[in-house]
Amino acid sequence: MTEIPIFEKLIEMRILEKKVPKWEKKVSIVLEIFIGVSGIYQTFLGDTTNGMLILVCFGLIVFPKFFTRNKIKQIPLEIEIFLFLMVLLQYVLGGVHDLYNKIPYYDKLVHFMLPLFVGTIGFLIAYTMYATNRLKASGVSIVIIVSLLSLGVGALWEIFEYSSDTFIYPFIKNWHHFQGNAQQTANADTMTDLIDDFLGGIFGSVLGLMFIRHSNKNGRLGEFVQELESDIFEDKNQSKKK
């Protein structure tokens, strides 16, 4: 398959002193505070279910060492921002503020954006595995795999929605009904959601590729790959000693 030119080994990358743009730090701090406060407030004074879900997601993002038994030390800032945005769209805006019902087709926006974020994160992780000799694949094949993975995540969510509507909604008062809306039947809603999932995954992969190219130009690619490798993947030398 045709190789993407940017797919070079880590040793060939320009590595400069670690420098994270100030705007990324500020965005991450604002999202962290807003989502953390929203989760606490909703848990005790508002929508308890969504509040607890927000806090669980918040904990997974901010304290990955605790939940993964030190396998993941921390989450790189760029990926952390994507994860916070996913929580914001799904639970804070969609769940707590009920935008799923207030805004027509908000559900479609979420079904496009979440796989886009998943696709971007998946592409960055796959590229890191490639650059550190953990994965052998062409750039095109990685784009295809990540896009299909995003579609798979969307399909699992559709299964959850169907199961919830079938086995939980009829028996629990005020439980959220997922499938179908004022604009579409349940079947049409599911199919368009899956299409959005797939398109989001494709755009996410492209966004990941653009990020890699931009990082390579400003000298941050090597630093980003090394950071992602050290935070998420176990060091090869340590694993050999074990």
Please provide the ordered H/E string of secondary-structure elements. Answer: HHHHHHHHHH
Major sheet details:
none
The figure for the number of domains is 2
**What best-fitting shape do the alpha-carbon axes yield?**
globular
Which structural category do the helix and sheet elements fall into? mainly alpha
Strand percentage, roughly? under 5%
Number of helices: 10
Mean pLDDT: 83
The top level CATH class name of the largest domain = Mainly Alpha
Helix content: over 70%
Q: Quick one: how many beta strands?
A: 0
End-to-end span in angstroms?
37 Å
**CATH level-3 fold name of the largest domain:** Photosystem 1 Reaction Centre Subunit Xi, Chain: L
Determine Rg (CA atoms, Å).
Answer: 20 Å
Structural summary, described in words:
By secondary structure, this protein is mainly alpha-helical. It has 2 domains: 1-8 and 104-242, Photosystem 1 Reaction Centre Subunit Xi, Chain: L (Up-down Bundle); 20-97, no CATH class. Helix content is 71%, strand content 0%. It contains 10 helices and no strands. It has helices at residues 22-45, 48-62, 64-67, 77-96, 99-102, 106-131, 139-167, 186-217, 221-232, 236-241. Helix 1 runs antiparallel to helix 2, helix 2 (48-62) packs antiparallel against helix 4 and helix 6 packs across helix 9. The chain is globular and about 55 Å long. The protein starts with 21 loop residues before the first helix and ends with a helix. 29% of the residues are buried. Mean pLDDT is 83; it is low at 9-17.
Present the secondary structure layout:
Blueprint: H1 22-45, H2 48-62, H3 64-67, H4 77-96, H5 99-102, H6 106-131, H7 139-167, H8 186-217, H9 221-232, H10 236-241
Helix pairs in contact: 1-2, 1-4, 2-4, 4-6, 6-7, 6-8, 6-9, 7-8
